[in-house]
Amino acid sequence: MEEWYVIFTKTGEEEKLGKILEIFFCKKELKVLIPRRKIIERKEKQKTEKIKLLFPGYVFIKTKMCNEVYHRINNIYKFAKLLKEELEPAVVREDEMRIILSLTGNSDLIGFSKGIDVGGRIKIIDGPLKGYEGLIEKIDRRKNRAKIRLNIIGDCKLIDVGIHIIDTDDNKILNDAS
Question: Which residue ranges does the record assign to the NusG-like N-terminal domain (predicted)?
Answer without folding.
Answer: 1-104
